[in-house]
């Protein structure tokens, strides 16, 4: 997509907190170097590290597509995402994390998908999983059909959150991330959208190199799985899926103890490492 004048503005939102300077540079430049140019990058920055702050400021000073959001006191990750959402001007909104690397045609592929699938409201894609040295250690694909996405909600998120793009009407109707689910803001967000009839999809294409740091990852993600489990129990069971299969899935989920989720995470984490 060489010319983007007639294509929609895409707002990419990123919440940052003391990312290493090399990683934050790679992440930001992977967005600014997209082959789709009609973008704005909103960085809600909570950093206290002066080197990280200076890198973000320097890039923003050189590129008017970058807007920095700072509030003077610590926002926290989920409120930072919401601040960025409220500032977004695009008709399509994409997520990005400060240590991941978007593939050069990510935005082009997602915009084309949005234009060709007008009934789909939320959509992500597949990922490479990389270590701290940018080495690809695994890859992950996500379901593409509506039914398979619904079923996958029971076991894990059917999306790679940093690949998500969604239509502006979602925030215009009042949907934002819930700070209560600070370790599961994505799954909570998706389930609430599902309950209100929004449609989901995924591209088969890889869109992003998703970074998995070596230190503390298991502890952080195990906690995240438990919060995800609680979010699913709270919301899915209020409005069971409208099919026999989905009823069985909902019933099963109601009876999964949180300790099992933690054990299941350890097993899944070993597959990646």
Automatic annotation (TrEMBL):
This is Glycosyltransferase, group 2 family protein. Residues 11-172 form the Glycosyltransferase 2-like domain. The keyword Transmembrane helix does not apply. Keywords: Glycosyltransferase, Transferase. Transmembrane segments: none annotated. It is an enzyme of class 2 (transferase). Its EC number is 2.4.-.-. The lineage of its organism: Bacteria, Pseudomonadati, Bacteroidota, Bacteroidia, Bacteroidales. SUPFAM superfamilies: Nucleotide-diphospho-sugar transferases (SSF53448). Pfam families: Glycos_transf_2. GO terms for molecular function: hexosyltransferase activity.
């Amino acid at each position: 997509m060489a010319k983007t004048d007639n294509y929609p503005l895409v707002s990419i939102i990123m919440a940052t907190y003391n990312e290493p300077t090399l990683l934050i540079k790679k992440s930001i430049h992977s967005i600014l170097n997209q082959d789709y140019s009609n973008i704005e990058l909103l960085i809600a920055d909570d950093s206290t590290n002066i080197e990280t702050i200076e890198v973000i400021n320097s890039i923003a000073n050189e590129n008017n597509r970058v807007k920095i959001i700072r509030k003077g006191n610590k926002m926290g990750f989920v409120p930072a995402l919401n601040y960025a959402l409220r500032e977004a001007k695009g008709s399509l909104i994409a997520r990005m994390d400060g240590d991941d690397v978007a593939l050069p045609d990510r935005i082009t592929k997602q915009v084309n998908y949005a234009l060709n699938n007008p009934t789909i409201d939320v959509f992500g894609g597949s990922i490479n999983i990389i270590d701290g040295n940018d080495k690809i250690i695994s890859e992950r694909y996500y379901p593409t059909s509506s039914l398979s996405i619904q079923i996958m909600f029971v076991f894990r998120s059917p999306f790679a959150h940093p690949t998500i793009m969604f239509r502006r009407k979602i925030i215009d109707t009042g949907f934002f991330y819930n700070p209560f689910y600070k370790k599961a803001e994505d799954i909570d967000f998706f389930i609430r959208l599902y309950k209100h009839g929004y449609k989901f999809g995924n591209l088969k294409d890889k869109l992003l190199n998703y970074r998995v740091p070596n230190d503390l990852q298991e502890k952080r993600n195990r906690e995240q799985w438990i919060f995800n489990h609680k979010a699913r129990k709270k919301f899915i069971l209020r409005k069971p899926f409208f099919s026999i299969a989905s009823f069985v899935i909902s019933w099963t989920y109601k009876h999964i103890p949180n300790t099992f989720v933690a054990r299941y995470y350890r097993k899944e984490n070993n597959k990646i490492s």
